[in-house]
Design goal:
Layout (H helix, E strand, L loop, with lengths): L1 H29 L9 E3 L8 E5 L1 H14 L2 E5 L2 E5 L3 E2 L4 E5 L3 E5 L10 E5 L2 E5 L4 E4 L2 E6 L3 E3 L14 H12 L20 E4 L2 E6 L2 E3 L6 E4 L2 E6 L2 E3 L8 E4 L2 E6 L10 E3 L4 H7 L3 E7 L2 E10 L7 E7 L2 E13 L7 E22 L14 E23 L6 E21 L1 E7 L2 E2 L18
Length: 454
Amino acid sequence: MRTKTILLLLFITLTLHAENNTAKDDVLREITGAKKPTLLINIVTMGAKGDGKADCKKAFDKAMRMAERRGGAHIVVPAGTYMLNGPIHLASNVCLELQEGATLKFSPTPSYYLPAVRTSWEGTFVWNYSPMIYGYELHDVSIIGKGTIDGNAGSTFATWRARQKNAQMRSRQLNHDETPVAERRFGDGDWLRPHLIQLFRCRNITLEDFFITNSPFWCIHLLQSENIICKGIRYDAKLVNNDGIDPEMSRNILIEDIHFNNGDDNIAIKSGRDNDGWAAATPSENIIIRGCHFKGLHAVVIGSEMSAGVQNIRIENCDYAGYCKRGIFVKTNPDRGGFVRNLFVSNCTFDEVEDLFYITSMYAGEGIGNNHFSEVSDIFVEDLQCRKARQAGIVLQGTAAKPIRNVVLRNVNIDEVKNAISLDHTEVVTMEGCHIGGRAGVPSQVSEKDQIFK
């Protein structure tokens, strides 16, 4: 019986490896990023001044209009600080190159980001303040170069969280009531912060090498978009809710060699909240995260807005650049529904965390009494290393209605941990070569003290 069990585990492991590698290669073939236009425009010739004082918004608007007329453009921003009293609205076939020493510095004045645009806020479709860099229904869009995007949000937007509750709850009620999106209007007095960069219903995207700081909210929001490369981006974004990259209802994405240093989740994969997610029925899928360096709140999160489902996620060859509260965190609750399946984690290393690998279907105690249970299944973790988990090593919290199913943990090693393993409502969890709390050595010999019988 033991031999049959070992052979079965080996078969499962080899099968998952083969399927994972084949699927990964198929996804990588689909990810090409944006095509680069040939027409060059130097933003200075459009009237921009990199003196840190003059408003350059009109110059960027002019460059985008020219790009639209000419079928695209490569817009070069040379060294200097370019103030923007309002957002940049991108056009198709545009490559925005921020050369080394160039900084886009956005005004902190909220009124400059009105009128409202169609967007999404915490998984609910709304009209709200424009993101600072915004693209809607575009194709072949790039932001590249060693320059800086500075949201400059510390004095205004970063202070809004304490006042957002009423509008936040109203947005969720509009979601649950299935109110038409055109009627979901937010703006002045609602305190819902805009994103730094949002690409909404776009395809063929490349985001590469630039530095992000002082974002008003999520830094990069990839919403209902596809064929995306995020590579070499660097962060020092520690304001409130400064998630690094949030793919939402998006597919075919490569996130590679990112240096995170964020005040919130480094990567948060989402797919809509509650009714909006169910209606869209557009899962986030085929996302490869590799060679990244994590620092901030959580390294990689799935949820909690994941009602349209998340599938085919691969996290590999990543490590830590500093402290992370949690390593891998999957969170949902009985409000969400949806599914998380085919999550592969391999060859990742963390130093000290609070929790290393945590899946919960009861996030924040929300949704109690509801019956939109999430399906979480087919999780494969291999070669996951951690020096110290102050609280939990491996946590799997399913529900009686929808247990977490089919989890394989192979070569997971945590040197020091308080709560090694906690499993609730799980089915078919296999472990091989795991050492949670250190590796046991050779058993000691019996001493004379041990040989005391009463």
